[in-house]
Amino acid sequence: MTDVLAGQKIQSATWPATVESLDNTSNANLTNTTFATGTPVVDLTFVAPTTGRVLLTVTAGSRDNTGTDRVVCTFELYLGTSAGGTLVIGSSGSTLQYECTCAGQADAYQYVSRTTLVDSLTSGATYYVRHMNKTASGSGSADCTLRALTVRPTP
Amino acid sequence: MTDLSAGTIVTALDFPPTVQANDGTSQINISSTAYITGSPVVSTTFTAPTSGRVRLIASFVGGADASGNRAFVSPQVFEGTDTTGTEVLSPSVATAVGSMGEQTSSSAYERCSFLDGLTPGGTYFVRVMYRVTGGTTLDLLYRGIIVVPLT
Predict the structure, then answer these.
(1) Number of neighbouring beta carbons within 10 Å of residue B40
(2) Between residues 14 and 43 of chain A, which touch chain B (CB distance below 8 Å)?
(3) Does the CB of B144 have a partner CB in chain A at under 8 Å?
(4) How far apart, in whole angstroms, are the C-alpha atoms of residue A26 and residue A143?
């Protein structure tokens, strides 16, 4: 990765396109307490910029009908074009840095985002990221109506 | 501060690196109604871009054991490399992200704010501050800050 240097001209590799994937299919009555992809899978591929840094935003609209459980969303990042690639950031460990959640008391849909700076990416390489969700207690009353991922190259 | 005009060649100051700082050390039963740093301090330095404008993204994961009180997490910015420089941004609800008073479980929060009037090329120090509205039921499980140079 290379910082944007004095005197250089902008190249296409410096600022690849910002990309987003969004779906508003209802995923209702969730029971999984370990992260899963949801239906359909919300995913995208992106090209790492010259700097090797991107801002990755996870968005979700979720609720719990009984106001007790909550939906937790995060992402998984792979080097390559699918989840068959090399895992870069997973969801099996702590996701406190990456996750977005609705409040446990939210019985109406709450829409939130969470942004992470992902760095040390290989300039020009293609990466795959997918949206993951789980519930805190698996009550079966939590719903997720909107899931989105945005990846923006950053200096 | 200078806007980026068409045809200009990139200079190093136009796009200094985006930086972040974060920590997952739990801050349990926090009670300060005045802004404090917590331990460890979550902080970093950044370089102001040519435009003099940056986006601050403050975030935390946390919640309360009982309803009624809220946590606020807000950035504080100084000129220089530590808090001995001139304060240019005070922590306040103008830039803070806040929890919901009715919640009794943990949740993740994030807020973007805009800071301009910075000196291009200047070094600044940003740290994450927090306070509560009252009580001793609030916990912070994670605190973070991202500084993004803007055009």
Answers:
(1) 10
(2) none
(3) yes
(4) 7
Q: How many helices (H) and strands (E) does chain B have?
A: 0, 10
Q: Does B141 touch chain A (CB under 8 A)?
A: yes
CA atoms of A138 and A21, how far apart (whole Å): 26
What backbone torsions phi and psi does residue A98 show, to the nearest 5 degrees?
-115, -20
Q: Do β-strands A27-30 and A110-118 pair in parallel, antiparallel, or remain unpaired?
A: unpaired
Task: State whether B110 and A155 contact (CB < 8 Å).
Answer: no
Among A105, A113, A115, whose Cβ lies nearest the Cβ of B103?
A105
Burial A42-51 (b: 16+ CB within 10 A, else e): bbbbbbbbbb
Please name the member of B17, B61, B104 whose beta carbon is closest to the beta carbon of A3: B17
Measured between beta carbons, the chain A residues lying within 8 angstroms of B22 are 97
Nearest CA to CA, how far is A152 from chain B (Å)? 11
Q: What percent of chain B lies above the pLDDT cut of 70?
A: 93
Distance CA A71, CA A138 (A): 9
Confirm or reject contact between B146 and chain A (CB < 8 A): yes
**What mean pLDDT comes out for the span B86-106?**
92
- A35, A132 Cβ separation under 8 angstroms: yes
Global pTM reads 0.90
Torsion angles phi and psi, residue A71, rounded to 5? -95, 135
Are B30 and B132 a contacting pair, CB within 8 Å? yes
Distance CA B27, CA A4 (A): 37
Burial class (CB in 10 A: 0-12, 13-18, 19+), A92: exposed
pLDDT in tens, A54-70: 999 999 999 998 888 99
Distance CA B43, CA A58 (A): 23
With an 8 Å Cβ cutoff, is A82 touching chain B? no
